[in-house]
Design a protein that fits this description.
Layout lengths: L2 E6 L11 H7 L5 E3 L9 H11 L6 E6 L11 H16 L3 E7 L3 E7 L5 H9 L7 H11 L13 H23 L24 H22 L11 H20 L5 H25 L22 E5 L7 E5 L1 H7 L5
Helix pairs in contact: 1-3, 2-5, 4-5, 7-8, 7-9, 8-9
Length: 340
C-alpha cells in the first residue's frame, strides 16, 4: 500500500520536463540523486551526508531533488503531477521502499511502497518545521523520524587550534593591507577612486566575493520564504502570479551562478538578478495588499556593480551643478558621514 504526502508551497506556472529514467539511473550509484540544476539547493557535500545516512537502511530509502519543471506534464494540479512522476519512478525502480522527491521550491512528495511507514504524517510534520529554502533540514528531519543513523560530524580536536591560528594570520594580513591602502590626509573619499572592481562589501579576493554573493542569494531565499505570498483568489495569468514566478526564477538563476565559480562580472550579474527578484516580490506583495507596485530603481550611480539603488542623493561633482543621483545602501552610508 502506498502512503502519499505533499505540501504545495507556492502556486506557480512551471515549464520543462524531466525523465524519471535519469533518476533511477542516478540511484544505481547513490541513494540520493540531485539534479545538476539543484546543487545550490542541496550541495554535493550535503547530498553525500544524506547518502551516508541511508546507504544501508532496510527498507531502502531513496531521495531525489529535481527542478520544479519536472512537474510540467500538462496537468493543472501540480500534486497530481508530482504523484504521477513518483509513480513513474517507482515503476522503473521496481523495488519496495520509501521514496522522497523534492521538486525545487514547490513541492516535497513522499511515498512508502510495500512497507508500513507513515510517510504522510512524517513529511507533513517536517515541512511544518523547515522553510522551503531548507530542503536539507527537511530531509534530515524525515530521516531522523525514520530512524536513520546520524551522519558523522564534527572536526577532529586538533583542528580548532589550527583554525584559530589561521584566522589570526588572515585577520592580520587584511589589517595590514587596509593600513597600507587607506587614503592620505589630503585625498578625497576612497569611494570615488576604486582601485579594483569590487562588490558592495569591498572584499579583497574573488573567493570572498563569491561567499558574500552566496550569502546574499541565501538571504533572498529566506526573504521569499518569510514573505509566504498567498495567491488565493489571484489565479494563474494575473500580474501577481507573474511577479511571484519572476522572483522565484531570479532566485533560481542566481543560485545556479553562485553554485559554480563565477568571476566578478558574473557576480555583478548575480547582484542585479537578486535585486530584480526582490523588486518583483515587492510588487506581488503590494498588489495583494491593494497598493501600488513600487517603481523599479536604477543601479547605483557611483558603481553599477553595487547593485540596485535604495534612494536618491544630492551630488555635486567638482566644478559641476548639484543633481540627484541614485545610490545604493553602502554608498548612502558612506556619503552620510562625508561629502554631499
Amino acid at each position: 500500500m502506498r502512503f502519499l504526502a505533499a505540501l504545495l508551497l507556492l502556486t506557480s506556472t512551471v515549464s520543462g520536463s524531466s525523465d524519471p529514467a535519469a533518476v533511477v539511473e542516478g540511484w544505481r550509484t547513490s541513494p540520493v540523486y540531485v539534479d545538476s540544476s539543484q546543487r545550490a539547493l542541496v550541495p554535493d557535500d550535503e547530498a553525500a551526508k544524506l547518502a551516508e545516512r541511508i546507504k544501508d537502511q532496510s527498507p531502502a530509502i531513496r531521495i531525489a531533488v529535481l527542478p520544479a519543471e519536472a512537474l510540467n506534464d500538462g496537468r493543472r494540479d501540480k500534486q497530481d503531477s508530482a504523484q504521477a512522476f513518483l509513480d513513474s519512478v517507482v515503476d522503473k525502480q521496481s523495488a519496495d521502499g520509501i521514496y522522497v522527491i523534492v521538486f525545487g521550491g514547490l513541492i516535497t512528495w513522499g511515498s512508502a511502497v510495500g512497507v508500513d511507514t507513515p510517510i504522510a504524517s512524517i513529511l507533513t510534520d517536517e515541512l511544518g518545521k523547515h522553510s522551503r529554502s531548507d530542503p536539507v533540514g527537511t530531509l534530515n528531519g524525515v530521516l531522523d523520524q525514520l530512524g536513520a543513523p546520524k551522519a558523522p560530524s564534527g572536526p577532529p580536536g586538533w583542528l580548532w587550534p589550527l583554525v584559530i591560528v589561521l584566522v589570526v594570520l588572515i585577520a592580520g594580513a587584511f589589517a595590514l593591507r587596509w593600513w597600507r591602502s587607506r587614503p592620505g590626509k589630503d585625498e578625497g573619499p576612497a569611494l570615488y577612486r576604486p582601485s579594483y572592481d569590487v562588490l558592495p562589501d569591498e572584499a579583497d579576493t574573488v573567493e570572498e566575493r563569491r561567499r558574500l554573493a552566496r550569502e546574499d542569494v541565501t538571504r533572498f531565499g529566506e526573504e521569499l520564504d518569510a514573505a509566504d505570498v498567498r495567491l488565493d483568489g489571484h489565479g494563474d495569468g494575473t500580474a501577481t502570479t507573474a511577479d511571484v514566478q519572476a522572483a522565484m526564477d531570479a532566485y533560481a538563476a542566481a543560485g545556479r551562478v553562485v553554485d559554480g565559480k563565477p568571476d566578478d562580472e558574473q557576480l555583478r550579474g548575480v547582484r542585479a538578478t537578486v535585486g530584480y527578484g526582490r523588486w518583483r516580490l515587492a510588487c506581488a506583495q503590494a498588489r495583494i495588499a491593494g497598493k501600488i507596485a513600487p517603481p523599479w530603481r536604477a543601479l547605483c550611480f557611483f558603481d553599477p556593480g553595487h547593485g540596485i539603488s535604495v534612494t536618491d542623493w544630492m551630488y555635486k561633482p567638482p566644478g559641476g551643478r548639484s543633481r540627484e543621483v541614485p545610490v545604493c545602501a553602502a554608498c548612502r552610508n558612506r556619503l552620510s558621514g562625508g561629502e554631499r
